[in-house]
Design goal:
The structure is a homodimer of 339-residue chains. By secondary structure, chain A is α/β, with parallel strands linked by helices. The first copy, chain A, has 14 helices and 6 strands. At the A-B interface, helix 3, helix 4, helix 5 and helix 13 of A face helix 3, helix 4, helix 5 and helix 13 of B.
Chain lengths: 339, 339
């Protein structure tokens, strides 16, 4: 029998190009100079094509935040102690974190999912899908076993499916985990051939000494795990959403690395991805450029958690409403262009 | 007796730098790496300083769209006939235009104000503050008399005051009027010393021949009106808001030209201005750079009407909520940075 992972990959098809064409036709007839709403119009057309309908509205947007600890945290790569992962999962669930505020502001629901936080303690409000109490240190060998990796990926697919079953037609990805920019940098390096020096950034704000350790850790991990897939915890949330034709808004550096992994597995998933913001972290802009993505916002964010995704929901919804709610020249009795 | 205009200028004071300092102190203690919410944090601090309180929330945002016809429309500078101004004012008031949709999406109210539309017909839902049935052609002489100019400016102040009296603590500017990018380009040229060739853009989408006429019209107007202030219809909405310590979100090319005029009159008004987006129109980016403004969004918008302002409300509100709603490290029991 095929696994959930294989079935999901097989279910992903390109978005509906006929609907996209029809969306552009409608957009070109709305009461505005052609193309004058810029990228909002692109968002509207991409959303309609993904959903396969000109009439599809964005319903119940939901941010999925996947939390896990990374064994590489022992390698002096972060400014914060590992205990912060548990503490921040509780803060996110309780409503006090950046993503909690921005999801609420966007009118979006938020699910904080534990895929591998290094604790036994119960965390109220956090969904338990724990695969392990933290991954292994990937500078010494694989971060996890193949079976653990499959479990983590399927957790992502299932979370996306659950949110869609609850009525969401727009998902957002987020991440939590001390040291998580380190494996993300390694993923970008491995998949896009970007040198660690160019992709590694200062994460939560590390000094020069830790920066050197971090680049070293990435180089080491790439050598030790040559060719293997590392830590793509939320990769498959994007694939799970694409399989159901529900677009997903990718957050920043970490979710972006997972998206790069997802796109390597299934390039068609690109039709379902919106890239929310150009992160201030490391070589994110270079990586986005390499996959042909042009992030929507450029506000210097580098918090992660899904904060950029939550913020960009507003733009996707705005584009969607332009298509659904604006009057055409005919409908409003407005004269068209003379030229 | 001093005029409303003079009283308003005198009432504008710099924003509260002590509150700004306190806002940064709070922002630095919230549960995130310092500065990691980028420009959202700057928005939060600027808003608090403008309002003079750490606890000030954004209430009842309102977009003010000022419509007027420009005599220069006869000079072959636009792709649309002048009748479109009247038609679009009705469309905006009826809810079918771009700014109608985006203001609704932002949860903002919208006032469509007629300051000088070239018609006698009543326009349901449009506020009547008509100074003239269109301005004169400024390539032949002044666009309006000094008295008309004062009336138009005071209409802007009074509209801002009315919105504030109704409870708005964040205003947005917008514009409507066939040919209005032409006088706006002239304002940028006159105030910032940018050559017409570099600032004039294609507006609603004009061809090369009309582009040449448009540059010529601007050159001609600058020569004919050397040193005079032209057409700043919505300038004083910004000043009216600043006088009441209510921040205002400036739309794009046209509102930006009015803001440049306002800043020349009262540089302190800058503390109360948020610049919503880098317009795709002409030399807007260059002009924003010249006044030290860094627009929030870069989405290729060039519709005007206040669409960019309405879209950027969401970001100002997001920054504001970060300050008001996020937990500090102490409050959430989260460990701080080790370095």
């Amino acid at each position: 029998m095929e696994s959930l992972f294989e079935r999901t990959l097989a279910a992903i098809k390109p978005s509906d190009k006929e609907v996209e064409k029809a969306a552009w036709k409608r957009l070109d007839n709305l009461t505005k100079p052609r193309g004058s709403l810029g990228r909002l119009e692109e968002l509207a057309a991409q959303y309609a094509a993904a959903r396969g309908s000109l009439k599809a509205a964005v319903e119940k947007p939901c941010v999925l935040v996947f939390g896990a600890d990374h064994g590489v945290a022992v390698q002096n790569v972060s400014a914060f102690p590992q205990a912060v992962t548990v503490q921040m999962a509780a803060n996110i669930a309780a409503g006090g974190a950046g993503v909690s505020v921005l999801a609420r502001h966007a009118g979006a629901s938020l699910r904080m999912v534990d895929v591998g936080i290094a604790t036994d303690a119960p965390m109220p409000g956090v969904v338990n899908r724990k695969v392990a109490k933290g991954s292994a240190d990937f500078t010494l060998g694989p971060a996890m076993t193949q079976e653990q990796c499959r479990q983590a990926l399927e957790a992502g697919i299932e979370e996306a499916q659950d949110a869609i079953a609850a009525g969401s037609t727009l998902l957002g990805t987020g991440d939590l985990g001390i040291a998580n920019t380190t494996p993300s940098a390694a993923l970008y390096s491995a998949y896009l051939g970007i040198d660690p020096e160019e992709i590694v950034g200062r994460g939560t704000g590390i000094d020069d000494a830790r920066m050197k350790s971090k680049v070293e850790a990435v180089r080491c991990a790439l050598a030790v795990n040559a060719g293997a897939l590392n830590d793509p915890f939320d990769t498959l949330a994007a694939l799970g959403a694409a399989a159901k034709r529900v677009p997903i808004v990718i957050d920043g550096f970490i979710s972006g690395a997972a998206a790069v992994a997802a796109l390597k597995l299934k390039p068609e998933a690109m039709d379902y991805c919106f890239f929310s913001h150009a992160s201030a972290e490391g070589g994110h802009k270079k990586a986005m450029n390499a996959i042909g993505a042009c992030p929507l916002l450029g506000l210097g964010l580098r918090l992660g958690e899904g904060t950029g995704a939550a913020l960009a929901f507003n733009l996707v919804q705005a584009g969607n409403k332009i298509l659904l709610e604006m009057a055409s020249f005919d409908e409003a009795g407005v004269s068209g262009s003379e030229v």
